[in-house]
Design brief:
By secondary structure, the protein is of the alpha+beta class. Among the domains are: 2-76 and 438-698, Alpha/Beta hydrolase fold, catalytic domain (Rossmann fold, 3-Layer(aba) Sandwich), CATH 3.40.50; 101-255, 7 Propeller (Methylamine Dehydrogenase, Chain H), CATH 2.130.10. It is 16% helix and 35% strand. It contains ten helices and 42 strands. A hairpin with a 5-residue loop joins β19 (250-255) and β20. α2 packs across α10. The longest helix is centred in the first third of the chain and has 19 residues, at 56-74. The model is unreliable at 1-22 (pLDDT under 50).
Length: 704
């Protein structure tokens, strides 16, 4: 690809003319004459300068856009009412699943409206809880978040990661668990991975310090694994592994609990990863490659004696359990322990000398206990369709699990492995009655006849009169599964007669690798067809009509929303693409965007791949012929260094300049926030109130 820059005009003017009907005056970025040439095809990129997220011109445009959006939202008559209800619903005690380490119990708790959850420790399960780490004290506005923790195997130390303003950049600190004091150790520019302990220190992954002013936009290259000895400066850390031949790959080290082995994961060049091993009991032991095909996933579960337990989809698209020995760890020597089944094996751990396996059946979790010899012993009976997460150590019989569903907030159970009995440990009290709602799972045929599942949650007694408002949500990519989960923000929509619809799209991991691949690269249109098919099904079955459907998705789901709105603007009334990948021709040029090529392909791969991407790229397919578009509010954040905000900036500028009818085309740009992780409650409530107000107002809902 070659780029020619003819004229650069880095200015910004405010459009004085008003849109017809809505009469919104949008801030419009000046256009320049940037043109890229792909395989002989010229593609204009007039808002290229908005990729410079730290320029004065971009800052002025962002400020002007936020003023227009804030003014629009402030005039929605029930916006304050929605925020108050969201606040009331969110204000309940939330406690995480306890982890037992060296006889003590550690857990997170949020009293209700704390910006960040606090880490506590108990000497006994029924004992007094003491604060160990309060992230709320790390910043005045709650924008410093805890992004990871790791206990040393001897129980003496806790390493914890923090993220500032939602960035993927992490800093690592260490607490002495006996005194509760933070040590002087401080790691900068860590990314994608936490601390993995060995002896009196830990391994971590980091990049070289980025160029000043480009921390959140420049491409990340040359990921490295270091070892940090406690009490020493980061400048003394020992480089353990790097691969200069592959600068765009990720490398992360994980040490076995007995500290004999370190496993190194290599990813970023396929749908899976390579796995390496290093013997930590021998000085200067080499790093050995166990696999050589990054199209498959390989992950150790744990080391027990001389046996390594692993989960993989190598030779099993829906995953299986295999074993190897420390003496013969190469892939060719692995032995199948638990074969692939009809359901997808989504998680595996060893707790109390047992294998705890979680399977996905039609996107909902089912849990089983197996012996270490591979024999099924029990199925764990779960309350309903939902999602489960287990916590426990390989040698400790005491285990807990957290269960949640669409109207079932995260509830903690204590589980007896031998008796196969669950005992309620903690049930939160939320200010709504779940008995008033129901969830059903329906199946519909997509454009090519593929059967697609969809969860529907709504108030009992709902009438199929074709007039119910719908919040349609999807993702469809990167082998990510959308399982049932709880969110207080959706309750406002449900309480006011809405239907929450969550679609199990191809591209996800709910039915294994074949399902994933069916929504990637030259199959990506399947994902959009599935989502469009979901809306058509809901209309056909008299749940709703096209004037009552709002669509939402984030990141890859933001791409989904942008694409389907371009392809079927007649089908939806409102759309909220969040932190979306909107420029499919240049996504791979920012931060870690290159890592998504396994799902998307790139515009540089071939003429055929360029043509395919260009044909659905949300930025490049906005209609400009008067075709009415739904009301759209794009959401992004200034510190998003995963999907850089330039995607949303350029998309919104193009959308506002196009002739797409009178419905509002807005962009909401959060400050001191990133891709979503670690966002403080105060910002979450404001954003949720804005999104649901925008959607419910444009669907014509009457808010009680």
């Amino acid at each position: 690809m070659k780029t020619k820059l003819l004229i650069l005009v880095c200015g910004m003017t405010v459009l004085g003319a008003c849109n017809q009907g809505a009469k919104l005056a949008y801030p419009v970025a000046d256009k320049d004459n940037t043109v890229d040439t792909y395989f002989g095809t010229e593609v204009a990129d007039p808002y290229r300068w908005l990729e410079n997220d730290t320029s004065k011109a971009t800052e002025a445009w962002v400020e002007a856009e936020n003023k227009v959006t804030a003014a629009y939202l402030s005039k929605i008559p029930f916006r304050d009412k929605i925020k108050q209800r969201l606040t009331d619903l969110t204000n309940y005690e939330k406690i995480g699943t306890p982890s037992k380490k060296k006889g003590k119990y550690y857990f997170f708790k949020n009293d209700g409206l704390q910006n960040q959850s606090v880490m506590y420790v108990k000497e006994t399960l029924d004992g007094e809880a003491k604060v160990l780490l309060d992230p709320n004290k790390l910043s005045d506005d709650g924008t410093v978040a805890l992004s990871g923790i790791s206990f040393s195997n001897n129980g003496q130390y806790l390493a914890y990661n923090i993220s500032r303003s939602g960035s993927d950049w992490n800093e690592i600190f260490v607490i002495d668990l006996a005194s509760g004091q933070r040590l002087d150790d401080h790691i900068l520019w860590a990314k994608f991975g936490g601390a993995s302990w060995h002896g009196n220190g830990f391994y971590y992954s980091a990049y070289d310090a980025p160029e000043a002013g480009k921390e959140y936009s420049n491409m990340n290259e040359n990921h490295k694994i270091y070892y940090h000895q406690l009490g020493t400066p980061q400048s003394d850390d020992k480089l353990i592994y790097q691969n200069p031949k592959e600068p765009k790959r990720f490398y992360y080290g994980s040490v076995s609990e007995d500290e004999r082995l370190m496993f190194i994961f290599e990813s970023g060049a396929g749908s899976g990863n390579n796995l390496f091993i290093k013997d930590l009991t021998k000085a200067n032991a080499p790093v050995m490659a166990l696999t050589d095909d990054m199209e498959y996933s390989y992950a150790p579960i744990e080391v027990v004696g001389d046996k390594i337990y692993l989960i993989t989809n190598y030779g099993a698209p829906k995953y299986r359990i295999m074993t190897a020995t420390i003496g013969s760890p190469m892939l060719k020597d692995w032995v199948e322990l638990i074969p692939e089944s009809e359901s997808v094996l989504s998680n595996a751990s060893i707790i109390g000398g047992k294998l705890m396996l979680t399977y996905e059946k039609d996107a909902s979790h089912h849990a089983y206990v197996y012996s270490l010899e591979g024999k099924e012993e029990h199925e764990v009976k779960l309350p309903t369709l939902g999602s489960v997460y287990f916590s426990g150590d390989k040698d400790d019989k005491e285990t807990f699990y957290s269960f949640s569903s669409f109207t079932f907030p995260a509830t903690i159970y204590k589980y007896d492995l031998d008796k196969n009995q669950s005992e309620l440990y903690l049930a939160p009290k939320v200010a709504f009655n779940p008995d008033e709602y129901t969830t059903e799972q329906v199946f519909f045929a997509s454009k090519d006849g593929t059967k697609i599942p969809m969860f529907l949650t709504y108030k009992k007694g709902l009438q199929k009169d074709g007039a119910n408002p719908v919040f349609l949500y999807g993702y469809g990519g990167f082998n990510v599964s959308l399982n049932p989960g709880f969110s207080t923000s959706r309750l406002v929509f449900l309480e006011n007669g809405g239907i929450y619809a969550q679609v199990t799209l191809r591209g996800g991991g709910e039915y294994g690798e074949e399902w994933h691949q069916a929504g990637t690269k030259m199959n990506k249109q399947n994902v959009f067809d599935d989502f469009i098919g979901a809306a058509e099904y809901l209309i056909q079955e008299k749940y709703t009509n096209k004037e009552k459907i709002a669509v939402n998705g984030g990141s890859n789901g933001g791409l989904l929303v942008g694409a389907v709105v371009n392809q079927r603007p007649d089908l939806f009334k409102a759309a909220v693409p969040a932190v979306g990948v909107m420029d499919m021709l240049r996504y791979h040029k920012f931060t870690i965007g290159w890592n998504w090529a396994s799902d998307y392909g790139t515009s540089e791969d071939s003429k055929e791949m360029f043509n395919y991407l260009h044909a659905y790229s949300p930025l490049h397919n906005i209609k400009n012929d008067g075709t009415p578009y739904p009301a759209i509010m794009v959401t992004t954040a200034d510190h998003d260094d995963r999907v850089v905000p330039a995607h949303s900036f350029k998309y919104a500028a193009t959308l506002q300049a196009a002739n797409t009818g009178d419905a509002p085309k807005l962009i909401r740009i959060e400050t001191k926030a990133g891709h979503g992780a670690g966002k403080p409650i105060s910002k979450i409530l404001d954003e949720s109130a804005d999104i649901y107000s925008f959607i419910m107002y444009n669907l014509g809902m009457n808010v009680k």
